[in-house]
Write a structure and sequence with these properties.
This is NAD-dependent epimerase/dehydratase domain-containing protein. This protein is of the alpha/beta class and about 325 residues long. It folds into 2 domains: about 5-160 and about 200-225, NAD(P)-binding Rossmann-like Domain (Rossmann fold), CATH 3.40.50; about 165-195 and about 230-280 and about 295-315, UDP-galactose 4-epimerase, domain 1 (Alpha-Beta Complex), CATH 3.90.25.10. About 40% of the residues lie in helices and about 20% in strands. The protein is built from 10 helices and 13 strands.
């Protein structure tokens, strides 16, 4: 059966997660539409680009027309999340209810709030204290309430901080790899001797694609496949091995502007800085055992990430 005759999978959001997910779904043989406010460019073979504002009811309905599965990977500028993300949820959830499509939501760890180093599993209590954490928890409750009430079929996949090819706006992204390759100053946040989980963006995509085709997982939160946590200092040492020289590191013990993170972003990030002053350890055992999907080893993730940034920088200099 050709992809064109396959049930349609619609990915909302053309950032690193949505773009990587669209490619993963195509590799699995699905018909795929990738949606953003302006039709995404360079989507790759087999991906249909589509322009829509999914924060509006009409835009969301147009975006998901004909979908069997919807993947909500939309994000917005950090300082607008509390205002805009609930509006997007309202439109996307209503569209899922109206069409009957299953809804797979990419989620964060924010609802857990500070854990004092407790390993995070799907059973960890939601104790968010930040504005963005409480907002995310409220959204998640609404998703799960809609599923329990039979209005929609919903599943949530939570990820740790992204890392990997194509990831720029992460604490292990554009503030680290370009400077590591070019000899500049890289960023470390908080206590770099604490373990901190990162999820390979390709594992985010593989995990969401799996949830999209395994409806027995519906109605709950899952932790997407995430490699065992190591300290940020250990990750920096692994990067040093790959770039062939010592890193020049700047460690911020409190949020302030650095590299790609401007004052507006860091001002908003201040309430989330606890993530770097206590261990952030994600356990994805439940997902791995249930679906038979293992996370990419951290060594392989860093290999691929360094090579992607090396090619990116070479292209920018050509």
């Amino acid at each position: 059966m050709s992809a064109a005759s396959e049930p349609l999978h619609v990915v909302l959001g053309a950032g690193p997660a949505g773009t990587t997910l669209a490619g993963e779904l195509v590799r699995r043989g699905h018909a795929v539409r990738l949606v953003s406010r302006s039709a995404p460019e360079n989507t790759g073979e087999g991906v249909q680009p589509f322009a829509a504002d999914v924060s509006t009811a009409d835009g969301a309905l147009a975006a998901v027309a004909g979908a069997a599965v919807i993947y909500h990977c939309v994000n917005v500028p950090y300082h607008r999340q509390v205002e805009v993300m609930p509006r997007i949820q309202c439109a996307v959830l209503a569209a899922a209810e109206a069409t009957g499509a299953r809804l797979v939501v990419l989620d964060t760890l924010y609802p857990y709030g500070p854990t004092r180093g407790e390993v995070m599993t799907e059973d960890t209590p939601w104790r968010a204290t930040s504005r963005k954490g409480r907002m995310r928890a409220q959204l998640d409750e609404r998703y799960l309430d809609a599923h329990r009430a039979g209005r929609a079929r919903v599943v949530l996949g939570r990820s740790a901080d992204f890392v990997g090819p194509g990831v720029l706006n992460s604490t292990l992204g554009g503030a680290v790899f370009p400077a590591a390759l070019g000899g500049g100053e890289i960023l470390g946040l908080g206590d770099i001797d604490l373990p901190h989980s990162y999820t390979d963006i390709r594992d985010v995509a593989a995990g969401l694609a799996t949830l999209g085709t395994r409806p027995e997982g519906d109605g709950r939160v899952w932790h997407l496949p995430t490699a065992p946590a190591v300290t940020t200092r250990e990750i920096h040492a692994m990067i040093e091995e790959r770039v062939g020289h010592p890193l020049q590191r700047v460690v911020l013990t409190e949020p302030r502007p650095f590299g790609p993170f401007d004052a507006e972003f860091m001002g908003e990030y201040a309430e989330m800085f606890y993530q770097h002053t206590e261990p952030q350890i994600v356990d994805s055992t439940a997902f791995e055992r249930t679906f038979g999907v293992r996370p990419t080893p951290l060594d392989a993730t860093l290999d691929a990430t360094v090579e992607w940034y090396r090619a990116l920088l070479a292209g920018s200099r050509s």
